[in-house]
Each structure stands twice: as C-alpha cells, then as structure tokens.
Design goal:
single chain; 230 residues; mainly beta; 12% helix
C-alpha cells in the first residue's frame, strides 16, 4: 500500500485575533492528514456551541496532526497525535469541553499534563507548568504561580482555566500539545475546531434557536497505535 508522507506548512497568526480570524489559520485537512488514515463520519448529539478554544494569547499553530519528521532532530518520521498551539509562556489554558479529570501526570514526554473525559471524548493538555502531588490518596496538579490546583476526579466546566503554557516534558518551545480521542481513536483537533466554530456562528446568527441542530464531523481514525506521545 502506498504511503503518503507530507510535511505540513506552519500556520502563523498574529496574537489578539478574534475567533473567526483564528479559525482561518487552522491547517487545512489536506495538510493535517496522517499516513493511511480512514475517514469516517461521526454524528454527535452534543452541540459544541458552548465549547472553548483551549489557549489564551494565541500566537500560531506550529505543528498539525499527522506524520512529521522528528521535532527533536533526525530523519525519522513520527506520528504527532495532536495539534500544537503556541502561546507566550504562562498563558492560561482553558478546558475545551465539560468533563471529569481522569489523570494528572508529570513524568512522560507530555510533561505536566491533564487528561479530561467528556462522554466518549477524551482531551489531553501537555507541557503545562506545575507539578503533580498526592494528598489523602488523590493525585493533583498544582501550579502555585498560576493559582491552580486540579484534582483527579474533579469536574471541570467548559472554558475554565486548567493550566498554563509551559515547557515541561519533550518540547522545543512554549506551546500546548492538545490531543483529542473519540472512543479511543485519535481525532484531528483542527477538524473539531472548524466544526466548533461553525456551530458557534450558527448560535450567534440565530439567537432565537433554543436547540442546536445535530452536526456531522469528519474525523480521521489512525491505523497506528504507536505515536510520539507529545
């Protein structure tokens, strides 16, 4: 089977742009598809009109979802399982969708990270500032300068601050590595952001809507389970 190897161009945006301008800077699906991906249609009954963009002080999308050359040197290719969103060091990270914290950690390539489960969706936030501790048998992530303490088992509403951009783990600069999974399968976050923005535009232009219509989202399900982990 022929394999397509693509190097996606970096999308650079100016800080301070509105959500509409930010969406125009999301890498196109032609640039973010990984090697040998199966495209399928996923109908979701949960509207994303209330979901949150995950980073304050957005600067650029620096590495898209999919296969790429190693970010730390060498000629090898690796699967990048999320979307890298650059922002100044210390910028706050917001929870994308309401859910329960299922894991906090600080000893992997992700560095200090938080994983949240929202129904069939699981979203991970890597390279944050802070460290992990344990109290009364429960683990927590603490970022004292940022005024944040996040506990495993804690419910987090959409849009709430859950961390700050840092450089923990395997990283070459300050950014959020944001990963999405649906029923265990990786999903391209750029596609989700486009759908999210589409729903929010509908909500804004049709303020009399009491119920958002069900939407269709194209997701990319990888055949590979090995990934770079950051």
């Amino acid at each position: 089977m022929a394999k397509k190897l693509m190097i996606s161009l970096v999308k650079v945006c100016l800080p301070g742009l509105g959500i509409a301008a930010l969406m125009n800077c999301i890498p196109s699906s032609d640039n973010v598809n990984a090697v040998e991906l199966k495209s399928q249609r996923l109908a979701t009954s949960n509207p994303w009109s209330t979901a949150s963009f995950p980073v304050e002080n957005f600067q650029a999308y620096t590495s898209p979802f999919g296969y790429r050359r190693s970010a730390v040197g060498g000629d090898g290719w690796e699967f990048h399982n999320g979307l890298d969103i650059a922002a100044p060091m210390g910028s706050y990270i917001r929870n994308w969708w309401g859910g329960t914290v299922v894991k906090v950690g600080d000893r992997t390539a992700c560095g200090t990270h938080v994983i949240i489960k929202s129904g069939n969706w699981q979203h991970s936030y890597c390279h944050m500032q802070g460290q992990v501790g344990t109290a009364s048998g429960r683990r927590y992530m603490i970022d004292r300068p940022g005024g944040l303490v996040i506990w495993e088992g804690q419910y987090m509403p959409p849009g709430v601050r859950i961390g700050r951009v840092g450089m923990t783990g395997r990283t070459t600069g300050p950014h959020l590595h944001w990963t999405l999974r649906y029923s265990g399968n990786y999903v391209d976050p750029a596609l989700v952001l486009r759908e999210m923005f589409s729903q929010q535009k509908i909500s804004t232009s049709n303020r009399n809507y009491s119920v958002q219509p069900q939407r269709q989202v194209t997701i990319e399900e990888s055949k590979y389970i090995k990934d770079s982990g950051y």
